[in-house]
Amino acid sequence: MKQTTEDYYEGKGCRCLAKSQGECACGADWTPKEVYRLRDEIVSLREQLEELNNEYLILYELASEVWPITNRPLSIVLSEREQAEEL
Ligand SMILES: [Zn+2]
Q: Could you tell me the distance, in angstroms and rounded to a whole number, from the CA of residue 41 to the centre of ligand 1?
């Protein structure tokens, strides 16, 4: 679940007028905004990694199929495959 960091600030919702976590007695969230931003970035990077991994698996399958001619440009291999499927 993606955190909403745009309207967050350290000590948001603090009811005891504290200036820092050390002064706060109401249990407000003093997590640095950067931590939330980095958590969001991790979620986004994991999604990108998964996409790349899926692409890699497809390419690996394709490369295994056409081995040992994997040094040929992928675009040519793919267009030949498409032509072969149309026949
Ligand atoms: Zn407080």
A: 28
Per-residue pLDDT of 7-45, as tens digits, reads 899 999 999 999 999 999 999 999 999 999 999 999 999
How many angstroms does the Cα of residue 45 sit away from the middle of ligand 1?
34
Do you find a cis peptide bond into 32, omega within 30 degrees of 0? no
| Amino acid at site 52 | L
Output the 3-class SS for 44-67: HHHHHHHHHHHHHHHHHHHHHHHC
Cβ neighbourhood burial of 14 (10 Å; 0-12, 13-18, 19+): buried
Q: Could you tell me the distance, in angstroms and rounded to a whole number, from the CA of residue 79 to the centre of ligand 1?
A: 64
